[in-house]
């Protein structure tokens, strides 16, 4: 048993590290929305051994009915030898302008006598047609535009609606002109869709909602299947296998029930000590192993309480659901205390992102009780709901699903298996409480409060 728990602890540590490292490694480099503006242009020029300083930058994006956008970017440059060189060297000017805008076709560039660098670009897929003559643009989102947008880039950016349309939805914080034809951004902190609806249409808000909804809904559904339903089903298989083993094991539940207190205390001490040893005082792995410390400490508390026959006799399904919720809070709180006490790096993202799996672990407590009462469906449903809730915080339902290969399948299987392994002691203890409780003859559904007829 000790060897199994050590392996489970190692698996949970590895999975926690992968969950933190993998998304960041896949992210593209950050870019501003207008990367031919301001500091981004200065860096592009420097890569061509040209030094310029941008005093102010603006961009105007004119959208056509077919969704193609024409960008006109103006950068006012401080007077310097680099400006004169840029004005005289057409080849250098074109190369810098072409490099500056990564996702648009370069058209032309010139430098005025007053030092204003004007660049023109064409972007064919800035917006796309949708229902009722509406156009929608995902350029201002990470999920449907560039995946790592970093600011506006320009001091001011204006988007002009196609002929015969007006701005429907725009980015949070942007303003819309009185005639509805333009939306203006001076900052870019919150993401959002931009829609263009037929002028003076009474159904404009509804058309915008439908335009975005028809794009988002299929992706939300596919993402739910790929990153929630599939892992949850796999976790259900693991729990079902554990449940089958518990049911077929002669006397296991009875033996655990006779010594439920010492069993949980022993498991808790093992997990707590294992977490300390595995992470070198909860700091070596940056917090990834720390939740095991919280789970172990909570198991010790539960073991001390369940060592009393009166407590075991009062066990019901819904009370164990509540106990599972308390367990999550207690484990998270203990983990935070342990991190502050032992981890000099403080509360890291790695630590905080490892809390949601606690929900799946403690959901196995009432799930085991349901199994012990003979309600396999309720047991699997309880485990599945707990696991789904633990996965949702990591899921971006709007982001495109970029393949579901072998690595992802192995990762999901490892995560589900590790959580099931860590929660197995609670699952078995929950099953043993079904025989110890005073209402063993009723079903879990009978424990719901019912209205009394007058």
TrEMBL record:
Chain spans, region Disordered: 435-454
Composition skew (Basic and acidic residues), residue ranges: 445-454
Protein keywords: Membrane, Transmembrane, Transmembrane helix
Keyword Transferase: no
Top-rank lineage group of the source organism: Archaea
Key word Transmembrane present: yes
Membrane-spanning ranges: 224-247, 259-278, 284-306, 318-342, 348-371, 378-398, 404-429
The protein's name in its UniProt record: Uncharacterized protein
Organism: Halorussus limi
